[in-house]
Write a structure and sequence with these properties.
about 70% helix, transmembrane helix, DUF2637, mainly alpha, transmembrane, about 200 residues, two-stranded antiparallel sheet, membrane
Amino acid sequence: MAGYVSYRHAYELVLANGEEPTAAALVPLTVDGLIFAASLTALETARRGGKTPVLARFALGLGVTASITANVTHGLGHGLAGALVAGWPAVALILVFELLLTAVARPVLLPGVGTRGADVPGPVSEASDVPVESGTEGDSGSLGSFDHLLAQAEDIFGGELAAGHRPSIRAIRAALSIGQPKARRVQAYLDAVLAERSQSHKLS
């Protein structure tokens, strides 16, 4: 509803200022498209942990300003109250649009992993140069259940654990052919095994 009213205000304003109907119908879409593209760019950048590009900020500000200005100008002929009433649909539409995009982009919590695309805290420098085949991560068909993967890791690195050494992320990824997020979960499990064995030795 707000989108329709806001679009109609902008359409009538452009039409009243000399543009033909076809152009008047398209101009408001350029404003909405600018806001949409800038918002998606800002959200995607934020999800990757980066700063919003200056161009995206400028484009978003320009689109919002143009949309509100067009609607307010459309209502100015009816005084201040008319301008405020005409400008409200644009404000409501922009706020709803931004809230929906934020909700869609909200990270999803995964048990033991954290947010989608994020990793469990742990060393990262040692794992960056280990290639992983596409589709390997989370491929339950080749590795079986995660419990089986943990048992396999404990068996492979049994010698290192017995010596009190912590297997590296790189070694875990290479040995099990898994990605970094899952390798970190495996490493956390091996850390727990190592700590339990160390505690048992102390008690004995």
